[in-house]
Design brief:
Elements: E1 16-19, H1 23-35, H2 44-51, H3 56-65, H4 73-77, H5 85-94, H6 100-104, H7 112-124, H8 129-140, H9 148-158, H10 161-204, H11 207-214, E2 218-219, E3 228-234, E4 245-247, E5 250-256, H12 272-281, H13 284-293, H14 300-307, H15 311-323, E6 327-331, E7 337-341, H16 343-357
Length: 364
């Protein structure tokens, strides 16, 4: 999952709510999805086809730093108001090549020590075993663990910051020209409608209920414990939310707005929401899990005991149900995950199926 937990001091007052929008957010998020397609329910072969439009050298640099130089949403948020992909690329071009990696790294998503290590690697144009040990230890604690070799390659790139800055920018520009320039046109109006719809919901719902609605079933208690919460509509991350810390007291939440009748793949006739729901419901173990979750909220460990399955197996099934939007997810104070069936989404899946079956064959 891409929902990140962020701790902050508890406070009685609710955070100030602000809004932002821009296709530059999806520009970077789409690259994340194309490198981990199965997690987002995207066909790996199609994702590989998009990546193949880049040169071998450009593909390699993107793959080398994927998951380490993670989504620079804090940087996008700081851009001028247009915040489309072209303006993001223009802003990055104005940054000296040797500094591009550091401006894209989110210091609030790293420990101060790790950020200092990475900064020193850039400054020294070299890294050592101690640097490798510290950075690897940090990523071992993250949900997406990367091997020591992966971190080693990342540090090697940072030790050649001018070369990295030029090649990484070239890869982003090539990706924009080969794919995202057209994709941006397809999703821009969807993002605008999603923002308007969310703002209308905000006028009717308490903030805690608003966040559950926008996150498609995630109870985000920690998001209520910051001074400011910035809400941003996203297309490519649907149904997941992405929640980086962008300031000491500020969270940014990118919530999914891709409609149930649209797909990540341009021109795809079968909606993603329908396909993911049918795949999730086609598995007997997942049906049993949903039946349990229809009666009470349970943790993966509790479900594993009832089904006499290993916890990793249960987590795999819960991830499929979450991707299909069929479960609520709550993180308790200890960070433990509790799941419950999302009845309205289950009913909606059948409605989407009936609507799809009733469409004219002339649309194909």
């Amino acid at each position: 999952m891409n929902e990140q937990q962020t701790s902050a001091p508890s406070q009685a007052l609710q955070p100030i709510l602000s809004w932002d929008i821009g296709t530059a957010y999806d520009f970077f998020i789409s690259l994340e999805v194309l490198h981990e397609p199965e997690k987002y329910g995207l066909r790996p072969s199609w994702a590989a086809g998009v990546r193949s439009r880049l040169s071998t050298e450009e593909r390699k640099v993107l793959e080398d730093v994927h998951g380490l130089l993670w989504l620079p949403l804090h940087w996008v948020h700081a851009l001028p108001s247009t915040k489309d992909a072209a303006s993001a690329l223009w802003a990055l071009r104005q940054t000296p090549a040797a500094q591009r990696a550091l401006v894209l790294l989110n210091p609030h998503g790293l420990t101060e020590g790790v950020f200092n290590v990475l900064s020193q690697v850039v400054e020294r144009r070299a890294w050592n075993d101690r640097d490798l040990e510290q950075v690897t230890a940090f990523y071992k604690e993250k949900e997406h663990f990367h091997t020591t070799r992966k971190v080693e390659v990342f540090l090697e790139w940072l030790s050649r910051p001018e070369e990295f800055g030029e090649l990484y920018f070239s890869a982003l520009q090539a990706y924009y020209q080969a794919f995202f320039a057209e994709e941006e046109k397809r999703i821009a109006s969807v993002l605008r409608r999603g923002l308007i719809s969310a703002q209308e919901l905000a006028e009717r719902l308490p903030l805690s209920e608003l966040l559950v609605e926008l996150s498609q079933g995630v109870h985000l208690e920690e998001a209520l414990k910051v001074s400011e919460l910035v809400l941003v509509p996203g297309y490519w991350n649907t149904p997941y939310v992405i929640i980086p810390k962008i300031d000491v007291n500020t969270l940014l939440m990118v919530f999914g707005v891709r409609p149930p009748d649209m797909s990540l793949i341009p021109g795809e006739q079968v909606p993603d929401a329908l396909l993911l729901a049918l795949k999730a419901l086609a598995d007997p173990t997942r049906l049993k899990i949903l039946r349990y979750l229809s009666n009470e909220s349970l943790t993966p460990t509790q479900i594993a005991r009832r089904l006499r399955l290993r916890p990793p197996t249960v987590i795999h099934h819960l991830s499929a149900l979450r991707l299909a939007g069929l479960v609520h997810l709550t993180l308790d104070a200890r960070g433990e995950k509790h799941y419950a069936a999302r009845q309205e989404a289950i009913q909606s899946s059948f409605a989407i199926l009936m609507d799809f079956m009733g469409r004219s064959g002339s649309e194909e």
